[in-house]
Amino acid sequence: MTDRAPDPESPDKWEVQLRKGCLDLAILAVLWGGRLYGLEILRRLESDSDLVVSDGTVYPLLGRLKDLGLVLAEWEQLEAGHPRKYYSLTPAGEKRVRDMAATWTRFSSSMSRLLAPLEGEKK
Amino acid sequence: MTTTSDDAQQKTEAYLGRLRRRLRGLRDEHAGEIVEELRGHIAEKAAAGGGTAEAVSAALAALGSPEELASQYMTYELMARAEVSRSPLRILESLFRWASLSIAGFFVLMGTIAGYGVGGAFLLSAALKPFHPRTAGLWSLPSSNDCMDISLRLGFGSAPAGSHDLLGLWIVPVGIVVGCGLVTLTTRFAIWCAKQYRRTHGLERRS
Question: Is CATH 1.10.10.10 the right assignment for the domain spanning A11-115?
Answer without folding.
Answer: yes
